[in-house]
Amino acid sequence: MSETKFALSTRVVLITGATSGIGRACAELLASSGWRVFGTGRSLSSALPPAGHVEMVEMDVDDDASVHAGVATVIAKAGRLDAVINNAGFSMRGAVEDTAIVEAKAIFETNFFGVLRVCRAVMPALRANGGGYIVKHQFSGWRRRVAVQRPLQREQIRLGRRQRKPEAGDASVRHSCGFG
Question: Distance between CA 27 and CA 14 in Å, rounded?
Answer without folding.
Answer: 9
